[in-house]
Amino acid sequence: MKANINTVLVGDKVILVPYRLEHVPKYHEWMLDEELRNLTASEPLSLKEEYEMQEKWQVDEDKLTFIILAQDSPSEAKSSSSYSIIIPRTEPISPDDPRIASLTMIGDVNIFLHGTLPSSETAEKITRAGEEEDEFEAEVEIMIAEPAYRRGGRALEGLQLMLTYATGVPEAFILAGDARLDSLRAIKSPWKISPNSLVTRISDINEPSIRLFEKLGFQITKRVEVFSEIEMRWRK
Fold it and tell me: Is residue 205 part of a domain?
């Protein structure tokens, strides 16, 4: 998306970078996995189609996508308390920083804008056919595709970075005793979306993801039996 095309968000465990051409082969490899496609409600695409999709997403006004890179090695990923920080969170960097190439690509995090973005008087309206102009929601998705990097706090930090970037309200997503509040406050938000507009839709059997979003203040607001999914909205 245009808004984050030159943006890098740095955490202790993960770094979020824009989805670029060099990420497409690995992303395509992930999407060959039927389980991942089912969890993300994705359709199988050819490598050529993945490249075309990346080009489209880069200029879309209603999508925000970051690739998640790990600050730690696969052996360190098994520990949530011991890891080496390659790029300090206090250091601003660009997507072309050579150190980024050494980091492992482990997943992605996305926000899809539905309806009219109520940002400023000059903001462009982002609408879909059939939606009322006064309706707006920001749908959040996250995927940690590499199994070795799951259950180590990386998805949590990735969401904290993304949601702070989208809303400009880090206090809404920080956990008690977390020392990262000051660094999250340094993140500049291009939109300042209200946290109350945040929504996620998850498979009703995906307990780890449900618990993850609950930690960040999301509550179950709807069950859609026909799709075997639940809807969660930020209500902290």
Answer: no
